[in-house]
Design brief:
The chain is of the alpha+beta class. It contains 6 helices and 19 strands. 20% of the residues lie in helices and 35% in strands. It is globular, with a radius of gyration of 20 Å.
């Protein structure tokens, strides 16, 4: 691999042995297309993203992986991500043997504890919790917005995760089990060592994330893994689309855009009370779509908005980013592939939550599978 990642490159290799290797490899590559550019070959694949590269080579009896990235934290996250999905897709019990940077680390290098400082309503259905943390530098960049929050059971001393030799995370079980969700870092205050996370509040507020945000009090301790996923696309013209689950990421992107960039921003929310004022140096045009009582899982407002822009021919030069319910994300992705077949790599469409999972709108997918 010829790519470099700043002043230092971290590398790890893995030898994977498993049953139904071709099926697992194909399924893994299909899944990874949501997170990276995948170039397949007769012997494997080469994956690139803004923060890492992965080479996958199919051998007669094994699969070899070579991962390169710019930090130990990102390397650990990629190893966990790849290992957990291999075990998920395999029918038997795979063997994964890692070597290289970080192979002997017993604990995730991208873990730390957060302490709640304050919590308040941004809108009637969006609540912000501000946390103090020891190291904020890694959360302030524009290339990785997403983190996994670890919510310990109330009334018990937290037990935090460790790393297994095969790259998977070892999680506490039983009474110490953690609830994990992936969220967007909404903002970073490096001077005060603070980060802020916005939580969607929806009907009933039975989701763990919403429940935590509603009851968060100064001194509450949770864990955090990350950052990971992607950040703001590097393009002069953008179409940014999503529902309120993706609004924290969209807002952070718009705030980071430089002068001269043009952004068409389309966000679906319940009503006018959920609209937010987001400052930007760029030429940002906001369109707010209101469901007005239609269940979020049944709304087609974003799909219609994308279709209108495709039919109008206004997306020829735009990079398209969207975050929404997983099945809607699949439809948007299919529509873009059909309408813009010659522009592969010109869009990123993420399933931020799953209407059928029982974890409605507490989720995201840029790094793994869930957010709000």
């Amino acid at each position: 691999m010829s790519e470099t990642f700043g002043a230092q490159t971290f590398r790890a290799t893995a030898v994977v042995t498993l049953d139904e290797m071709d099926h697992v490899l194909a399924t893994l590559l299909d899944h990874l297309e949501e997170h990276a550019t995948v170039i397949r070959s007769a012997t494997g694949a080469h994956l690139t993203s803004p923060f890492a590269t992965v080479d996958i080579v199919r051998q007669p009896e094994t699969v070899h992986l070579d991962v390169a990235c710019g930090s130990a934290e990102i390397l650990a996250m990629i190893k966990v991500f790849v290992a957990e999905h291999i075990f998920e897709f395999a029918t038997g019990v795979p063997s994964i043997v890692w070597s290289g940077d970080g192979s002997a680390d017993p604990f995730p290098p991208h873990f730390q504890k957060l302490v709640a400082v304050e919590a308040f309503a941004v809108t009637p259905r969006m609540r912000r919790v501000v946390f103090a943390c020891e190291t904020v530098a890694s959360y302030g960049g524009d290339d990785s917005y997403h983190v996994r929050l670890l919510l310990p059971p109330r009334g018990r001393a937290p037990v935090w995760p460790s790393l297994a030799a095969d790259g998977r995370m070892v999680w506490p079980r039983g009474e110490d089990e953690l609830v994990t969700r992936v969220y967007t870092i909404r903002s970073v205050d490096a001077g005060r060592s603070r980060i802020a996370v916005d939580f969607v509040l929806h009907e009933g507020n039975h989701s763990p994330g919403a429940g935590f945000a509603l009851n968060a009090a100064p001194g509450d301790v949770i864990g955090i893994l990350g950052p990971g996923g992607d950040g703001c696309p590097d393009a002069p013209r953008l179409l940014l689309m999503g529902d309120e689950a993706a609004l924290p990421a969209i807002s952070r992107m718009v705030e980071s855009l430089p002068p001269g960039c043009a952004a068409d921003v389309v966000v679906e929310v319940e009503d006018e009370g959920e609209e937010q004022d987001i400052a930007s140096q760029a030429q940002a045009r906001w369109t707010w779509l209101h469901r007005r009582g239609t269940p979020a899982a049944l709304s087609d407002l974003l799909e219609k908005a994308l279709a209108a822009r495709l039919d109008g021919g206004g997306l020829a030069e735009s990079f398209i980013w969207a975050g929404c319910e997983q099945r809607l994300a699949a439809r948007l992705r299919d529509r873009l592939r059909a309408s813009l077949p010659d522009r592969k790599g010109s869009h990123r469409i993420y399933g931020y939550w799953n209407a059928g999972s029982g974890r409605e709108r507490d989720q995201t997918s840029p790094t793994a599978s869930d957010e709000s």
